[in-house]
Recover the amino acids of this structure.
């Protein structure tokens, strides 16, 4: 299991934790001064109080916590946040209230999950033609909707 250096920027910050033995994402905790209230369709940047050293060749991907998103409509505004290996600032979560009613989070509440995943760095080049496939240029819904 890889080890990731995490620096607490505030003594109240909580290190990421896994909710179960086989969980892919580690929970990130809100570092707030009390309760935070979200109006419908409002986005707020929530601190974690943590900075971390993601290994080279990996990215920290910040996803919604399924319960918070499905039951309360609170999920990352950018759908998936990306923490690059060379970023050393505070990890923040842009939480958005997708519901039609006011929502709240408490200090220390689990607000998102962090998945550390490898990625391939590509070199992009201009081409005159692309190879043919069965799908071709078929776009949205071209392979069926069910």
């Amino acid at each position: 299991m890889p080890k990731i250096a995490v620096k607490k920027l505030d003594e109240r910050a909580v290190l990421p934790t896994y909710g179960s033995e086989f969980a892919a994402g580690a929970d990130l905790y809100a570092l707030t001064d009390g309760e935070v209230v979200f109006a419908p369709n409002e986005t707020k940047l929530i601190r974690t109080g943590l900075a971390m050293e993601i290994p080279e060749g990996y990215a920290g991907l910040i996803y919604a916590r399924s319960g918070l998103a499905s039951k309360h409509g609170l999920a990352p505004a950018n759908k998936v946040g990306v923490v690059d290996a060379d970023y050393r600032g505070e990890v923040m979560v842009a939480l958005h209230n997708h519901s039609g009613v006011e929502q709240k989070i408490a200090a220390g509440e689990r607000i998102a999950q962090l998945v550390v995943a490898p990625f391939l760095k590509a070199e992009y080049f201009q081409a005159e033609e692309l190879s043919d496939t069965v799908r071709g240029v078929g776009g949205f819904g071209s392979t069926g909707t069910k």
In short: The longest strand covers residues 110-118.
